[in-house]
Structure prediction request, 277 residues.
Amino acid sequence: MNTLPARYAVVGNPIAQSKSPLIHSLFAQQTGEAITYEAILGAEDSFESLVGGFFGGGGGGLNVTVPFKQSAWAMCRQLTPNAARSKAVNTLYQREGELAGANTDGIGLVRDVRDNLGIEIGGRRILLLGAGGAVRGVVPALEEESPASMTVWNRTTERASELARDFSGSLTAASIDELRGQQFDLIVNGTSSSLQGSLPEVDEAWLASGCCCYDMVYGDEDTAFVCWARGAGASSAADGLGMLVEQAAESFRIWRGVAPETGPVINRLRTRLPGRP
Ligand code: NAP
Prediction:
């Protein structure tokens, strides 16, 4: 009989909009794993005690979202190589009695782009827009795909420079002026601008022939970035719903040792979004 703990949750602020409880309940149904998964509203000044209390009370695993990924990283006694490198943790669990952390955002992005959308990452020129926790979390997994180059732009220049310093040798920070004349095969919007219905700085001239544009944000309708990418002539444009399900599947696998099938869950979520056919 399975002796793993049964209680799981996601912590963030805000958290009411989270689709993680639905995704994990669909994984549990599909795999026959008996778990509960709830959404918990966290606060900056009590995040550490919340995590301690959750695991002290027999919890099996936590997902961590904005704005706690770096606090979670700082608390961990054990880290997967990708979490250590990105300094951001979205999946907490216990190993040998110690708090352990992984970052599954990167594998989520890579699996959605490479496996679900069928877009090659190896040998391609990648532009990352944004330098927050999400972009920080995906760089190690993108590195592993051996792209030809990785460039990061951010509205606050110093944050992009800091990220490029952390990943020196594989990531270059660029200003809008420095991006002039450059072309990319994969452009990932890792800013939260689509949540405000706006676009970060973008330029149609950046799109190489066959370019794929990917927005980490997802919504009931196409995001501002996905709409822009289609109009700009991208050969494909996708939002981050697939990444969300893929990162959740990797967390579930870490916690339960079982890899759920993601395709049916992505389809189920798409059909539940009000603005979708
Ligand atoms: P974060 O740490 O708060 O960073 C936000 C980023 O967006 C920063 O780079 C910020 O630039 C930039 N930004 C915000 N508004 C902007 C605007 N109007 N124009 C240009 N840049 C703007 O958040 P995060 O954790 O990196 O998350 C970013 C987004 O990715 C969120 O919307 C989140 O929901 C999404 N996400 C999706 C998944 C998924 O599975 N699909 C996973 C992780 C994250 P400054 O540094 O200049 O402020």
